[in-house]
Design a protein that fits this description.
Aldehyde Dehydrogenase, Chain A, domain 1; 2 domains; about 475 residues; single chain
Length: about 475
């Protein structure tokens, strides 16, 4: 187990909560460790402390913020393998995916440190009207205030890094609420970052964590003293938070129903590989994993055969093995829900090409065809190892199918035509269009976010820092 202190990091020390809860290994239900559970009272206390810490965090010089993030990066890399092992145990995600998560987390920390130097403003030509003659105008970016970050269980450490690191870079005190199912690695991350912040010359109270259930989230997001909420999770919860937090700012990274379009001129082997890689990584518990596949009719039969053949290399088993690609979902309820969605689709006329059942606690990697357009497994985010194939007569029909969704986070297209690639970029309604790679490809330095019910605002250190700052306009007449 990691060597962070007991309790919750609130204020300058660690506070003992009233209760602890077992964290379970999804693979076999064994106890990974005991995690502190916060309360709405502790959440309110953390906000009190964050509000008091706001001036100190805002006043931190750029070199202090940069040093804190660089130290956090160094400490994280030193413990990276241990953090990966803990992530496997508490999330049940295959080791290969946890290694990807920690590598991306390290990049996010180091990039946020670099972005501190790019936090600046501009001059404004106020004399565009005669009344502005003789005036000097410029704007700068200032911290928005207390940031509340709420993360999901599927990539808990990476999502935490995308809240914590930009907040420190922007000069904002931040309170993190980790997922109840997998809080331990995030607690470790917060411990490392608090130590780094103190060593660099900042206050430990600039970074706090309060775990717990919905009552904790409600206490944090509805407090009128906060400046911003950054939430990653389901669309339903995100929309509820946005309503409750108003008029404070929210950045929402919500669910999706990612599509992959296969054009008739595509490299079918590469596209089939993308469906298997992109549909089943992280046990399918990723908001931009492949769920809907739209294939042009001339190649549909051949492509389907290639996808089914490629399934042979998807190893199902213990997530601690480096060979495993699919393991149990986070809990029994998730497994039951995914299986029910598959069963409902089959009852409505869908065909099971592969999988379609559970094996103990695992949803077998599943490929469906002929899925009705109103089935939940087609319309909503399945968040499990399920892919739906559909044949379309042409690419305009594929784009219409992609856009016929309340979601719009990432989409991919496989094609050998540059013209087709640009047509897709222009016509598909999503926050990101990926050409000849899985929709799950995300560069952590790029702007990341969705449209429609997939959210609002953008993450990635540079863009999150902009979200966590506000412009302050200065207008000066040197001579009255």
């Amino acid at each position: 187990m990691p060597d962070f202190p007991a309790g919750l990091p609130i204020g300058e020390a660690w506070v003992e909560p009233s209760t602890y809860a077992d964290v379970l290994f999804p693979y076999d239900g064994s106890v990974v460790g005991r995690a502190p559970v916060g309360s709405k009272e502790l959440a309110s206390k953390a906000v009190d402390i964050a509000v008091d810490a706001r001036p100190a965090m805002a006043a931190l010089p750029s070199h202090v913020r940069t040093k804190a993030l660089r130290l956090a990066y160094e400490r994280f890399v030193e413990r990276q393998t241990e953090i990966e092992d803990l992530l496997v145990l508490e999330t049940g995600k295959p080791l290969v995916d946890c290694r990807v998560e920690t590598a991306r987390s390290a990049l996010t920390l180091s990039t946020a440190a670099e972005e501190v130097a790019r936090l600046h403003g501009e001059t404004v030509p106020l004399d565009m009207l005669p009344a502005g003659e003789g005036l000097i105008g410029f704007w700068t970016r200032r911290p928005i205030g207390v940031v509340v970050g709420i993360t999901g269980f599927n990539y808990p450490v990476l999502l935490a890094c995308h809240k914590l690191a930009p907040a420190v870079a922007a000069g904002c005190p931040v309170i993190l609420k980790p997922p109840p199912q997998a809080p331990l690695a995030t607690l470790w991350l917060v411990h490392l970052m608090r130590e780094a912040l103190v060593e660099a010359g900042g206050p430990a109270s600039g970074i706090q964590l309060v775990s717990g259930g919905p009552e904790v989230g409600e206490a944090l997001t509805t407090d009128p003293r906060i400046g911003m909420v950054s939430f990653t999770g389901s669309a339903g919860v995100g929309h509820q938070i946005a309503r409750a937090a108003a008029p404070r700012k929210v950045v929402l990274e919500l669910g999706s129903n990612a599509a992959l379009v296969v054009a008739a001129d595509a490299d079918l082997d590469a596209a089939a590989d993308a469906v298997v890689r992109g549909g089943f990584y992280a046990n399918g518990q990723a908001c931009i994993s492949v769920q809907r596949v739209l294939v042009e009719e001339p190649v549909a039969q051949e492509f389907t055969s290639k996808v089914i053949d490629a399934l042979d290399r998807v190893v199902v088993g213990d997530p601690r093995s480096a060979d495993t690609r699919v393991a149990p979902l986070i809990d029994a309820g998730s497994t039951e829900r995914v299986q029910q969605w598959v069963d409902d689709a089959v009852a409505a006329g869908a065909t099971v090409l592969a999988g379609g059942s559970t094996d103990g606690r695992v949803v077998r990697p599943t490929v469906l065809s002929d899925v009705p357009g109103d089935a939940q497994v087609w319309r909503e985010e399945v968040f499990g190892p399920v892919v739906c194939l559909k044949t379309v007569p042409d690419l305009p029909s594929a784009y219409d199918e992609v856009n016929d969704s309340r979601y719009g986070l990432h989409c991919a297209i496989y094609t050998s035509s540059l013209q087709t690639a640009f047509e897709a970029i222009e016509q598909i309604e999503a926050g990101g269009i990926v050409v000849n790679e899985v929709p799950g490809f995300r560069s952590d330095i790029a702007p990341y976010g969705g449209v429609k019910d997939s959210g609002i605002g953008r993450e990635g250190p540079r863009f999150a820092i902009e979200e966590m700052t506000v412009t302050r306009m200065a207008t000066i007449r040197p001579a009255p």
